From TrEMBL:
This is LRR receptor-like serine/threonine-protein kinase EFR. Residues 31-69 form the Leucine-rich repeat-containing N-terminal plant-type domain. The lineage of its organism: Eukaryota, Viridiplantae, Streptophyta, Embryophyta, Tracheophyta. GO terms for cellular component: plasma membrane. The keyword Membrane applies.
Length: 359
């Protein structure tokens, strides 16, 4: 009897040891599988039966379509369901797939709100939910996603203010929230995005001015704030600290005042779109320093004075659109230097002379 009890005790110890040493990976794998199964069950339309036929609990999760796993732990690291023509909602359980680095569910018909539980995905580097029908506010807790580099929320129905907490994500390089119904001001805290390269907030209902801090981000390449209700003057530091800026687009707003003269410091600028605003004053001669500029769109503003002859230095220019302003004087002969020009629009001004357009 004693010998039997001894072996029984040893067996219990061995069983407990095995359970302890294997429970974590088994639990994690089961968590990933369960969470994604809940996501599958939240899909109300899968017309191509992609998930219905492929996402089976009887097959390894790392073989599921749209799923990528890490080689070391076999944990789910990427979810890519882009353009699967899916319709449904995103369950909070997705926030339990803790090794996720990439979520791309763009170009589907997902609805409802984005669950705040996604902020638990502290390894997340990419979240792309563009071209869906998500609504409600963008969760402020997304500011906890400290590893995030790419956030695309464009082409949805998000509303409310842009959470200032998002601007704590110092690694963020690309931020796209265009084509929503966001309102309020652009938060001053945007200057905290010290790695930001591209930001697009176009086609929303944003008001107020462009924060001065935007142009303290030296990594900026593209700024697109078009089709909003932004107003006031452009920050006078627009090109002082942004040597890499290639695109600045703020068309269809309510800006006024003059173009800051330090615009000439943006040596890599290729596209400047200020049309359909209330800008006034002279076109600064410093624009002639933008040797890489391909598109200069200043139409339908209140600019006055002469066209600066320095425009003739813009030998890369393809589009020179100055129509519907209050420009006066003779058209400078230096326009003839623009040998790459495809479109020249000067009508609805008070100009004299005939442009010397290169053949």
């Amino acid at each position: 009897m004693d010998i039997c009890m001894f072996y029984f005790g040893v067996l219990v110890l061995i069983t407990n040891y095995i359970s302890l040493t294997t429970s974590t990976p088994l639990f994690n794998l089961t968590t990933d599988q369960y969470s994604l199964t809940v996501l599958k069950n939240s899909i109300v339309s899968d017309p191509n039966a992609i998930l219905h036929t492929n996402w089976s609990i009887h097959t390894p999760i790392c073989g599921w379509i749209g799923i990528s796993c890490g080689t070391k732990h076999q944990r789910v690291t990427a979810l890519n369901l882009s353009s699967f023509n899916l319709r449904g909602t995103i369950p909070p359980h997705l926030g339990n797939v803790s090794f996720l680095r990439v979520i791309d569910i763009s170009s589907n018909t997902f609805t409802g709100v984005l669950p705040s539980e996604l902020s638990k995905l502290r390894r997340l580097e990419v979240i792309n939910v563009a071209a869906n029908n998500f609504s409600g506010e963008i969760p402020s807790s997304f500011g906890d996603l400290s590893q995030l580099r790419h956030m695309d929320m464009s082409d949805n129905v998000f509303s409310g203010r842009i959470p200032s907490s998002l601007f704590n994500i110092s690694r963020l390089q690309n931020l796209n929230m265009s084509f929503n119904t966001l309102d309020g001001n652009i938060p001053e805290e945007i200057g905290g995005l010290s790695s930001l390269e591209r930001v697009s907030l176009q086609n929303n209902r944003l008001r107020g001015t462009i924060p001065y801090a935007v142009f303290n981000i030296s990594s900026l390449i593209s700024v697109i704030f078009a089709y909003n209700m932004l107003s006031g003057k452009l920050p006078n530091n627009i090109c002082s600290n942004t040597p890499r800026l290639r695109e600045f687009t703020v068309l269809r707003n309510q800006f006024d005042g003059e173009i800051p003269r330090n615009i000439g410091k943006c040596k890599e600028l290729q596209l400047l779109q200020l049309q359909y605003n209330n800008f006034s004053g002279d076109i600064p001669s410093e624009i002639g320093s933008l040797s890489m500029l391909q598109g200069l769109f200043l139409l339908e503003n209140q600019f006055k004075g002469r066209i600066p002859k320095q425009v003739g230095n813009l030998t890369s220019l393809l589009y020179l659109m100055l129509q519907e302003n209050h420009l006066t004087g003779r058209i400078p002969k230096q326009v003839g230097n623009l040998t790459s020009l495809l479109f020249l629009m000067l009508q609805e001004n008070h100009l004299t002379g005939t442009p010397s357009v290169p053949s």
